[in-house]
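I am still getting used to C-alpha cells and would like to learn alongside you. Would you supply a protein for us yourself, any chain you care to pick? Start from the sequence, derive the C-alpha cells from it, and show both lines together. Go ahead whenever you are ready, and we will take it from there.
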Amino acid sequence: MSQTYRITLLPGDGIGPEIMAVAVEVLNVVAKQDNLQLEFQTALIGGAAIEATGEPLPAATLEACKQSDGVLLAAIGGYQWDNLPRHLRPETGLLGLRAGLGLFANLRPAAILPQLIDASTLKREVVEGVDMMVVRELTGGVYFGEPKGIFTTETGEKRGVNTMAYTESEIDRIAKVGFETARKRKHKLCSVDKANVLEVSQLWRDRVTAMAKDYPDVELTHMYVDNAAMQLVRAPKQFDTIVTSNLFGDILSDAAAMLTGSIGMLPSASLGSTSLGVFEPVHGSAPDIAGQDQANPLAQVLSAAMLLRYGLNQPAAADRIERSVLKVLDRGYRTGDIMSSGMIPVGCSAMGRVLIEALEQV
C-alpha cells in the first residue's frame, strides 16, 4: 500500500516558479518509482503574496503549511518590493514562516562536487574534498530580538536598534542539533561565536561547552566568527559541522556555498521539533533572469531530495534524485552559472528534461 504525503509548494518570486516546476516533475517521477502518493498544493508567499493579498505571509499560507507533511519553497523577493515598510517586505514573510512553524534549525550543506571543482573561484587544492554542514539557529538572535526599530532620540536624531539575544534553552536546542548532526558525519563540531566581545556569545559558548559532555564521541572546538570567515576561504577542509547563531550563520553559510562554485547548486533544510520542515535552495530569486529559462534548477531539485530524506523519511528516493544530478553533471550539462569550457549549455527546462532522463535510469 502506497504512502500518501501532502506537500505545500511555495514558488514565490523571480525564478521561483521555473525551478519549482522542474522539482515537481522530478518528485512525480521518483514518487512513481517508489510507490509514493504526493499530493501537492500551491500557496502564496513573498512578493507574489503581497501583490495578491497585501501581505507577505497570508494566514491561509501558514495554515496550509501547518497541515502539510513538508513544505518546498523556491525563492522570494525582488527589486520592486525593496522600498516597502519592513513588515510588508517579502523577507518578513519568510521570517514569519519560520517562526510560525517553529523552525529553529537550518541545515545547509556545502560539498564540492568533483564535476564542478573548476567552477569554484578558489584554487583546486583549496576546495577539493570540501564537505561541510552549517547548522544555523533560525528563530532567535538579532533578527528577532527586542527591542528593535528606528527611534528618534531626545535630540531629534534617528537611532536604529536591533538586539542580539539568546536564552539558554534556545542555545541548547540548536547545540543539540549541531552535536547530533556532527555525530552522523565525521564527529567534529566547530561552534562559532564572538565570545571575546559579546556577552550573548559568552553564554552561547558556555552552553555549547556544557552540552559537550553528553557527546564524548564528538570533538568540539570553538572559533570566533571573524576567524571562521577567514578560515573558510583559507583552509575550508578543516571544517565538518559548524553550529552558530542566526546572524553569523546567515553570513558564513553563504560564504561556504560559494566554495562549491555556485550558490545555485546548494539546498537547505529548516527544521523544528517535529518532522515538518521547509526545504529551499540557498540562492535568491534572481529577478534579472526570471522568465528567461536561464535559471539553474539543481538546488531546488536537491532541496526536494532533502524534503524526502529529512521530512518524509524516504532516503532511497532522495538518493536516487542525488545520483541523477551527479549523472547529469557527469554528462556535461551545465546552466550558465556553472558553465565551463567544453560543457553542454542548457536552460532551466532543458536541465529538467535531462534530469528526468537520468532519474529513469538510476
In short: The two ends are 23 Å apart (CA to CA). The longest strand covers residues 3-12. Residues 16-33 form the longest helix (18 residues). The CA atoms of residues 256 and 322 lie 20 Å apart.
